[in-house]
Design a protein that fits this description.
- The protein is mainly α and about 80 residues long.
- The protein is built from 5 helices and 2 strands.
- Strands 1-2 form a two-stranded parallel sheet.
- The longest helix has 16 residues.
- The protein is elongated, with a radius of gyration of 13 Å.
């Protein structure tokens, strides 16, 4: 399945938008979204490669959680 076809799914489009906004996604988020969209393993691999090409890092849950905490902390700091 091509990225253009994958992007017709609202959940996937939302996930990609989140990745573009923050610069990363948890791999588990990607897997859950593709599972709920009933997509196969080759689609997961294709989307993973496309996300990385877009500059969106795919992180394990621990690394993604740490990055989210860091972003939250930075947002709370006075400027």
């Amino acid at each position: 399945m091509k990225l253009k076809e994958l992007m017709t799914n609202d959940e996937i489009r939302s996930l990609v938008a989140r990745g573009q906004e923050f610069g990363f996604l948890a791999i588990s988020q990607l897997e859950q979204t593709l599972e709920s969209a009933d997509l196969d393993a080759p689609s997961l691999e294709k989307l993973s490669a496309e996300l990385e090409d877009m500059g969106i890092e795919l992180l394990d849950d621990d690394a993604a959680g740490a990055r989210e905490a860091q972003l939250a902390e930075e947002a709370e700091r006075p400027r």
